[in-house]
Design a protein that fits this description.
Largest sheet: 3 strands, parallel
Strand order of the largest sheet: 1-2-3
Number of domains: 1
Structural class: alpha/beta
Distance between the termini: 19 Å
Radius of gyration: 11 Å
């Protein structure tokens, strides 16, 4: 489905005590979108304490700061 989409929206809510959580599966989906040149929107700011923070930043997602009308 990612391949046929214009963009993806990551709903990174707080989870397991982690602010703006992005798990392994979502990271992989973001990587697939990035590889296919899709725009990546992230509902909340990137989780700075994530071990994959640099990888997340390298995909240049658009952080919406919780405002869906910015899409």
């Amino acid at each position: 489905k990612i391949k046929s989409s214009d963009a993806i929206l990551v709903l990174n809510y707080d989870k397991h005590g982690n602010k703006n959580y992005i798990g392994a599966n979502t990271l992989i989906e973001m990587g697939i979108a990035f590889e296919h040149g899709k725009k990546i929107f992230v509902l909340n700011n990137l989780p700075e304490d994530s071990p994959a923070y640099e990888e997340l930043v390298s995909m240049s997602p658009v952080c919406l700061d919780g405002e869906l009308d910015r899409i």
